[in-house]
TrEMBL record, chain A:
This is Outer membrane lipoprotein-sorting protein. Keywords: Lipoprotein, Signal. Residues 80-263 form the Uncharacterized protein TP-0789 domain. It comes from Neptunomonas antarctica. The keyword Repeat does not apply. Residues 1-25 form the signal peptide.
From TrEMBL, chain B:
It is a multi-pass membrane protein. GO terms for cellular component: plasma membrane. It is found in: Cell membrane. It comes from the Bacteria. Residues 247-372 form the SSD domain. Keywords: Cell membrane, Membrane, Transmembrane, Transmembrane helix. Gene3D superfamilies: Multidrug efflux transporter AcrB transmembrane domain (1.20.1640.10). InterPro entries: MMPL_dom, Mycobact_MmpL, SSD. This is SSD domain-containing protein. The chain crosses the membrane at residues 223-240, 247-270, 276-299, 319-338, 350-373, 401-419, 600-622, 629-649, 655-676, 696-720, 732-753.
Length: 265, 781
């Protein structure tokens, strides 16, 4: 708190001074935000999407466990996106469907349909930081990216593979996040995420997510075929393998409500 | 050859001194490589089966080193808004502890409840500022009666609560990681206490225990080693009445310790709580060589010999005996290589190397120093030798009573050996002055013991833990375990599943049961896992493909035997009730429970080998199978008697004591060597009968023997003051054994010799080189 106040104390005059002498000068915070907006903007207009997601969970011994999930998402212009996940594997949870309405700045709405109970249950929880289906992905790692979920700070430019990347720090706004910050590598040519480093509550590196095998859909939307999360602490890792991306399949709000959950399987 | 060594030392003392100082400095430089490993795992070799089980358990689930805050209001219960706010704050801050992966407390416990078709998952105490006194009765009821929290995070009376921080040390820099955690935790403790003067806070857990190993060791080396030096200086000045001799001895001891520890650093040793007692032990052992050389040296001086001649004479007389005793001592300590526990192997090797270094220094640096230092002797006829004469007369006169009497004493002590019980309780490795021990005792008295046993139950198929039959077995097992008399707490998955089933049926208590179908159980868990926060997931009790779960039992303080018996009962339960499931049972306390026994078995081989080697060496040195065999009795009896006496002192034998027999064997054999060699010399060279030979032996080495024994006893008694019980017990029992050995050598060996060695006179032997061990000295002419 103190530190922030101090920063602002000298930052403000500095900015005023800088903007007086130069026509255009951007702070690291502004640049970070601008990159985030640009990223969000460049992907706008995908409307709706379906895909198959396979999770391969590995422990430090290399033992594997596999989850298969069908994903459906609906783009929302003024709010967070809506998404529906239908679990196909393991067989014990086949037909279980998970509906969530992402809300920037507040708890998401979440419902789960349990076929064995034949009931829809609303989950009232602020927790988004726990592991998703026992994997190294937290639920918050998988929800849609919204500008308002973070504050930003541009760090530097850096080459990432054959591309040139912006490296931006993102600070979660949600106080129940499991992270203090994420460091994100975004390429400058197509605004694709290449890598995210996750720092836990005590600000030490916990996990690294890497994206691979991007493909372009509808001439505009880049999606990775593979996302790999490595936990540096537990040495466990999880691969997300995406197949069968489809866009503009004609999904609507009617496909994302409590009743649609029961029909999902 | 050997003559040349000390000849050079006497002719060029300054060169010898300079050369040795350079060598010692070179060796000592290696000490910079010595690091202290405080992780309790160092006690176990890589092939230790209990360690292997525990490590595979940790790989299947999550690692579980921990630090525990024990919060105890000075009066009343923890259930007040202010106190809960303090616990809430401490819980929140605990996430900042380095390498923490999980924090469990009564405030962040994930409480689930139902409201119509909503499942609400939230922290037990979400916002402490909104709590009022009116909320307390309901909250108390919920927390104290929850099976996952009661006797684990909260005492049944509600007056003590625990915040448990799970720590996963990366192990990249083990020397710094542990202390880093501890310093953060201590800082939190200080803050907590200043903000909450109405409460006490104690620290426990494996991380704190590891740190206590390091701190006890540091405390010991800061207090015990200076104390030892003090004891040695006092004893030498008192018994030998020489300042220069004492100074020279101290220098030899310092050189020995520095170069041994330095060489240990060069050769890649690391220090552990047991092996850090190597300097203390060496300090004592290095004195003996010097005392023997000094005693003869002063004897010669008093009888008018010139300084150089006196030294040469002393070195000539003592070279063989101190060489032999150094070798036997080294063999005794080397027997510790058979120990199952690496720190004891290291201790044995370091001391064995140090003893040989001490020997080398005693025949080079020591005489060089004596040459350089001013030596004054008052010509005196010692009253002590009169004392020794009186004593030998007593032993010779009363031999017919002493032999059966001592035999009876020996036997009556030895019969108590089997009554000792085997026990390694790592909490009790620390005495009650150590804060970790106090905290853990407090926790045992108020919430639960430190004994934990983890049981991994494998269903054998992916997702198999959801199978109703499996859950039923798990529930039956958990229920059975809870009814065992030693059980404080059982953490089991079925409690969570039952609660979820109740939540899914609008919190109807009738549904606090296991779900009927596999799918239902799986879907409950999926739902539950989706709603848990970071660090509070189920990965600590479920494996990755949900084919096994881990039950953690917490028990009252149990001895090793009780733990092993409980472990057998667990296996038996599964054999009787659920033989279809494979189980794995492991835990750090269980590792310690087994190590004493494993170590005793492995040490028995080591001791036997050492005994055979030492006896063979004695036989060769004394050139007599007969004396070799006779020496067996006084060499073996003291350790056995020591353990018999131990039954009355403590009665519990563990890891530390299992190495004592081996290491004392090498030390006590020295007395026998000195006594027998003088006796034999008198018999064969001086053509004396057995009575006269006993008298001769007493007169020539009696004094040196009791001085060295007393110094050794005093030294090991200092080690016995360690706050680390492993070292303290080892010191105490070694001191006792050495004292007994002296008694046996003085009261049992001579009557035995007189009984067995009945040949009145040996034929006068012309072959004077035969007594290679002991050459004629002038002192008894």
């Amino acid at each position: 708190m103190n530190l922030q106040a101090k920063t602002i104390n000298w930052l403000l005059p500095a900015i005023l001074l800088a903007s007086a002498s130069f026509s255009y000068a951007e702070t690291a915070e502004e640049k970070g935000l601008a990159i985030a907006k640009q990223t969000k903007q460049s992907d706008i207009g995908w409307t709706d999407m379906t895909a198959q997601m396979q999770m391969v969970l590995r422990n430090s011994e290399g033992q594997e466990s596999i989850r298969d999930i069908r994903m459906q998402s609906l783009e929302k212009k003024d709010d967070g996106d809506k998404s529906l996940s239908i679990f196909d594997r393991p067989l014990d949870v086949k037909g279980t469907a998970f509906l969530s309405f992402s809300h920037p700045g507040e708890a998401d709405d979440q419902w789960l349909y349990l076929p064995a109970l034949k009931r829809v249950k609303r989950i009232a929880s602020r927790n988004k930081s726990g592991p998703f289906m026992g994997s190294e992905f937290a639920y918050e790692d998988l929800t849609s990216f919204e500008i308002e979920k973070y504050t930003y700070k541009y760090l530097r430019d850096e080459s990432c593979g054959t591309e040139q990347c912006y490296v931006v720090e993102q600070y979660p706004v949600d106080e129940y996040s499991g992270y203090t910050r994420r460091v994100v590598w975004i390429d400058q040519s197509e605004n694709r995420l290449h890598k995210i480093d996750f720092y836990d509550r005590k600000n030490s590196l916990l996990k690294t997510l890497t994206y691979a095998a991007y493909q372009q859909y509808l001439g505009k939307h880049w999606r990775p075929d593979m996302m790999k999360m490595d936990n540096h602490l537990t040495k466990k890792n999880t691969d997300l393998i995406w197949t069968d991306y489809q866009f503009n399949t004609g999904l609507s709000d009617a496909d994302f409500n409590r009743n649609s959950l029961k029909r999902a399987h | 050859m050997r003559e040349r060594i000390y000849d050079i030392a006497l002719k060029h003392p300054i060169w010898i001194l300079l050369a040795s100082i350079i060598l010692v400095i070179l060796a000592t430089a290696g000490a910079k490589n010595l690091v202290f490993k405080s992780d309790y795992r160092v006690f176990f070799s890589e092939e230790n089966p209990q360690l292997t089980s525990f490590e595979s358990m940790q790989k299947i689930y999550s690692k579980s080193d921990n630090a525990v805050f024990i919060i105890a209001p000075k009066e009343g219960v923890v259930f007040t808004p202010k106190r809960l706010a303090a616990i809430h704050k401490l819980t929140h801050e605990s996430w900042q502890v380095p390498y923490s992966t999980r924090v469990d407390s009564i405030t962040n416990f994930q409480y689930t409840r139902a409201e119509e078709d909503d499942l609400i998952v939230e922290d037990m105490v979400f916002d402490p500022t909104r709590l009022t006194s009116a909320d307390m009765p309901a909250l108390t009821e919920l927390i104290v009666n929850d099976p996952l929290m009661r006797s684990k995070l909260i005492s049944p009376e509600g007056h003590v609560s625990v915040v448990n921080v799970t720590i996963q040390l990366p192990g990249i820099n083990p020397v710094e990681e542990g202390p880093e955690v501890v310093s953060k935790i201590r800082e939190m403790k200080t803050n907590f206490l200043s903000e909450n003067p109405d409460m006490d806070l104690y620290l426990s857990g494996m991380i704190i225990m590891n740190n206590s190993f390091a701190e006890s060791a540091q405390y010991d080396s800061e207090t015990l080693i200076p104390l030892m030096f003090g004891v040695v200086v006092l004893a030498m000045i008192f018994f030998l009445r020489t300042f220069s001799g004492t100074l020279a001895t101290i220098i030899v001891i310092i050189f020995t310790i520095f170069s041994t520890m330095g060489l240990a650093g060069w050769t890649g040793f690391y220090l552990t709580a047991p092996s850090i007692s190597a300097p203390t032990i060496l300090l004592t052992l290095a004195v003996a060589d010097c005392v023997h050389i000094l005693t003869t040296f002063f004897y010669e001086l008093r009888h008018g010999a010139e300084k150089r001649a006196a030294l040469i004479s002393s070195l000539r007389i003592n070279f063989n005996p101190i060489f032999l005793t150094s070798i036997t001592t080294a063999i005794g300590f080397l027997s510790m290589n058979f120990s199952d526990s690496p720190p004891f192997r290291d201790l044995g090797n370091m001391v064995a190397a140090g003893v040989m270094i001490a020997f080398l220094l005693s025949i080079t640096v020591f005489p060089a120093l004596l040459m350089l230092l001013p030596i004054k002797v008052k010509p005196q006829n010692t009253e002590n030798s009169d004392l020794m004469d009186k004593f030998s007369a007593f032993v010779i006169n009363k031999r017919n009573i002493l032999l059966p009497g001592m035999t009876l004493v020996i036997l009556s002590m030895v019969v108590f050996v089997p009554l000792n019980t085997l026990n390694d309780d790592f909490v009790k490795y620390f005495d009650k002055t150590v804060p970790f021990r106090q905290a853990t005792d407090f926790m045992q008295d108020n919430i639960s013991g430190m004994t934990s046993i983890e049981i991994s139950i494998k269903s054998g198929e992916s997702g198999g833990i959801n199978e109703p039959a499996y859950l039923k077995a798990l529930d039956n097992f958990s229920g059975w375990l809870r009814t065992q008399p030693e059980t404080d707490h059982v953490s089991t998955l079925t409690d969570i599943i039952k609660r979820l089933n109740k939540n899914m049926h609008a919190d109807n208590p009738a549904f606090y049961t296991l779900p009927e179908s596999r799918e239902l159980a799986a879907q409950y868990l999926l739902l539950y896992e989706m709603s848990l926060p970071y660090g509070l997931d189920l990965n600590n009790q479920l494996n990755v493909d949900k084919s096994s779960t881990r039950v953690i039992g917490t028990f009252k303080n149990l001895t090793s035997n009780e733990q092993i018996e409980l472990e057998e009962r667990l296996y038996q339960w599964f054999a009787d009730n659920a033989p279809q499931y494979n189980i794995l049972v492991a835990s750090p306390p269980l590792m310690f429970a087994h190590i004493g026994q494993r170590n005793i078995h492995s040490m028995l081989i080591g001791i036997t080998l050492a005994l055979i080697l030492i006896s063979a060496l004695l036989g060769i040195a004394l050139r007599s199978v007969r004396y070799g065999l006779i020496s067996l009795l006084p060499n073996l009896a003291p350790a056995a008697m020591g353990f018999g006496l131990w039954y009355f002192i403590d009665g519990q034998v563990g890891l530390a004591l299992s190495v004592v027999a081996g290491m004392t064997l090498g030390i006590i054999v020295d007395d026998t060597v000195h006594f027998l060699s003088k006796y034999r010399y008198a018999r064969e060279q001086k053509n004396k009968n057995s009575h006269e030979a006993v008298q001769y032996a007493f007169a020539s080495v009696g004094r040196a023997l009791w001085i060295t024994s007393l110094v050794l006893v005093a030294g090991f008694m200092v080690l016995a003051q360690s706050s680390f019980k492993i070292n303290a017990d080892m010191g105490l029992l070694t001191a006792i054994t050495i004292l007994i050995a002296l008694v046996v050598d003085f009261l049992f060996l001579p009557p035995l010799l007189m009984k067995l060695d009945t040949t009145p006179r040996y034929e006068n032997q012309t072959d004077s080189t035969k007594g290679a061990l002991h050459e004629p000295s002038s002192k008894n002419n």
